Amino acid sequence: MSIGSTASLVEEKAAADLRPTGLPGWLRKALRLLLGLTATALIWEAAVLLFGIRPAYLPRLSTILMAIAATPGAYFNGFLRTSAETLIGFLTGSAFGLLTGIAFFRVRALREMIFPIFVVSQTIPVIAFGALVVLWFGNTLLAKAVIAFYLTFFPVTVNTLLGLETVDPKQVALMRSFGASNGQLMLRLQLPTALPQIFVALRLASSLSLVGAIVGEWFGDTTGLGVLLLQAMFTENVVAIWGALLAAALLGTGFYAVVAAAERRLVFWSAEQ
Amino acid sequence: MSGSPLASSPLAVQRGILGAVILVVCWEGLARGLHLPSYVLPAVSEILAGVWSKRALLGEAAGYTVLEALVGYGLGCLIGIGLAVAITMLPPLRAVILPAATAINSVPVVAYSPLILLWFGIGVASKMVMVAMAVSFTVFLSTLAGLDRVDRRAIDLMRSFGAGRLNILWRLRLPTALPLLLAGMRVSTVRSVIVAIITEMLGAYGGLGWVIYQAVLQIDFVQVWSAIFVASAASLSFFGLIGFLERKILFWT
Q1: Which of A117, A214, A245 is opposite residue B23, by nearest beta carbon?
Q2: pLDDT at A97
Q3: CB of B37 closer than 8 Å to CB of B23
C-alpha cells in the first residue's frame, strides 16, 4: 500500500522502454535528436498550414519562436528563475528523501509511525499548500522552492527505503564478520545496492520539482515560467502560452537528461544500460 | 502488496495510529499553546469544526471535484489502455505514438492548464480534460510495460496452437499486464483529484480548488484547511477504493 513505490516501478519500466538501445557515441544520439526535433517542427508547421488550424488552438511554430525572439529577456529571466527554484527544491527534496529513507530503514518503529503520515501528506493538493507556504515564507524564491521540495521528497524516500531493503542479508553478514561498522556497511554495500532504485525516484523527482516551481509561481510573482503562463492565460494570448510551454519543455527535458546522465555515470554497472 | 517491505502488520497499524495521534496532539498543542493566528496554523479542532459548520458548502464542492476527477480518470484510463493495446496490436504505430506521447509529457501536465482552460472554457470540461491527460500517460506507460512483459515463448506456444492476435491479447497479454496496469491506475487516483483541484484554482464555477482559492482571497484560513482536509479524505478514499478493487481483481497474486 504505497503510492510512490509503484509509481517509481512504472517509471522504471517506462524509462527502460524509452531508452534508445545500442547507439554507440554521443554524436549519433545528438544527430538523431536533432533529426527528431527538425521532423517534429516540420510536421507541426505543415499540419497547421495544411489543415488550417486556427491560431487560437495551435499557432505555427515559427510564430511562437518569433514571439520568443521578440522578447527574449522575459523568457530568459523566467527560465533562470524557475530553474533556480526547481534546482533548490530538487536538491533539498532529494537530500531529505534520502535521509528519511535511511532513517526509516534503520529504525522500524520510526517508519511505521511516520510513513503513513508521509503518504497522507501526498494527498494534500499542492495548490492549497502553496497558498499557505507563500503566507509563511513570503513571496520569495524560497517559498517556491519549498513547494518543489514538498513534491520531490516522497518518491525518493520510498525508493531509498525499497532499495535498501533489497540488500542481501548474507552480504551484510559477510561484511560484519570482517568487522565493518554501520557507516561502512551503509556506504560500501547498502547505498550502492540501493542506488539504481534511488535514481529511478530522482528521475521522477526532477519532473515533479518543476511542477512545484511552476505551480508555486501562480501565487503571485513577477518572473518565472509559471508567471508567463498565467499572464498569457489572462490576456488569452495563445502564442505566449505555447512559448512558455516550450520553455518549460526545454527545462524539463534538460533537467531530466542531466539526472539521467548522472545516473549512467554513477550506476555504471546497472543491467539496464 | 503482500510481501512488500511496506506491508502492514498489526503492530505497524498500531504504530501508524500512534504516529497520527502524536501529530495531531503536537499540532493542536502548538497552535493552542503558542496562540498561533489561524493564518499561520489553525488548531485541528478548529479545522474539524470548520468542516462541520461548512459541510453543505464543502460537500457540494467535493461532489463537483470528485465528478470531474472520476470522469477524467475514466477517460484517461480508457485512452491510456487503448493506446497501449493499439501499439501492441499494430507494432508500426509504436514509432509514432511513443515519441509523441513522450514529447507531450515532457511539459509538466499542470503547465497545460492555461491552454486547456482557454480551449474548453472554465466549466467542468476543462478539468476533465486535464485529469484525463494526467492519468492517461501514466496508465499508458504502465499498461505498455505490462503488455511487453509477456514471455516470448508463451506467445510462440499459443501461436503454434493456432491462436490469433486477438486471442493472444485477451488470454495472455492482458492478464499478464494486469498487475502493472492496475498499479498504474492506483497511482493515478491521487493525481487525478489533485490535478482537478489545481485546474479549478485557475478558473471554475465550483469545486474544492475554487473554494480554496476564494478562501485564500478572503484570508479565511480555517476554510482553506477545511477544504484541504476534505480533499485529502476524497483522495484517500478514491485510492482505497481502487486499491480494494485491485486486490479483488488480482486474486491470484
Answers
A1: A117
A2: 93
A3: no
Residues A8, A158 contacting (CB under 8 angstroms): yes
Under the banding of pLDDT at 50, 70 and 90, the label for residue A93 is very high
Give the containing element (helix H, strand E) for A26.
helix A26-51
**Residues from chain A contacting residue B118 (CB–CB below 8 Å):** 56, 233, 236, 238, 241
Contacts of A159 (CB under 8 A, 6+ apart): A4, A5, A8, A101, A194, A197, A198, A200, A201
Grid coordinates representing A153 are 521528497
Q: Is the pLDDT of residue A8 over 80?
A: no
Nearest to A90 by CA among A240, A177, A203: A203
- Let me know how many helices (H) and strands (E) chain B has, helices first: 11, 0
- CA torsion B215-B221-B222-B224 (nearest 10°) is 50
Residue tagged 499561520 (cell numbers): B40
What is the C-alpha separation between B106 and A37, in angstroms, rounded?
13
What's phi and psi for A12, nearest 5 deg? Answer: -65, -50
Contact B231 A125 (CB under 8 A): yes
Q: A188 CB contacts (<8 Å, ≥6 apart)? A: A175, A180
State pTM to two decimals: 0.79
Could you tell me the three cell numbers for B120?
474548453
Instruction: Report whether pLDDT(A4) > 70.
Output: no
- Identify the CA nearest to A116 among candidates A265, A208, A3: A3
Instruction: Compute the distance between CA of residue A172 and CA of residue B173 in angstroms, rounded to an integer.
Output: 39
Partners of A132 on chain B (C-beta within 8 Å) are 221, 224
Q: Please give the pLDDT value at position B7.
A: 52
